Amino acid sequence: MADRYAIDTVAFIYYLAGLLPEKAEKIFQSAEKGDAKLILSSISIGEAIYVFKKQKKSRAGEEISKMLENLGKCAYIEIKDLELQDWKNLAASTVPELHDRMVVAIAKKYKAPLITNDSEIIKSGEIKTVWD
d(Cα 115, Cα 12) in Å, to the nearest integer? Predict the structure, then answer.
């Protein structure tokens, strides 16, 4: 079975922009070859849309459409939502931001290291993290 990694919003956006640090980039490359699976919380898709729109680029709509179309075709990124037990676990999290708690809950659910550079998530020690 392939390795599994959860990815947070920043990792996802950096991936789309070609800006990942070396260790994270190697994991994405491994997934592209079929040697790993990536788990993306649906909240991260919403956050990515928010980031694209916030940039107020004239092409934000095109970029969002392209991102969603590519996600629909992507075999190595699984989009996951929270279920009731995940919300219960989220309630006990020490991570400050709600959207970050949601991403952490997904990583915990699938026992997957989280690709993130978020200092609050890393500092929490709730899950194993990977970045550079």
Answer: 9
State how far the Cα of 72 lies from the Cα of 20, in Å rounded to an integer. 22
- Which helix (H) or strand (E) segment holds residue 6: the answer is strand 3-7
Q: How far apart are CA 117 and CA 94, in angstroms?
A: 17
Number of Cβ within a 10 Å radius of residue 54: 9
pLDDT in tens, 73-112: 999 999 999 999 999 989 999 999 999 999 999 999 999 9
Domains of the chain, earliest start first: 3-130 (3.40.50.1010)
Residue type, 19: L
**Is the distance from CB of 43 to CB of 102 less than 8 angstroms?**
yes
Q: Spell out the alpha helix ranges (H) of 18-59.
A: 22-32, 42-54
**CA gap 93, 74 in Å, rounded:** 30
Angle at 64 between CA 44 and CA 109, to 5 degrees: 20
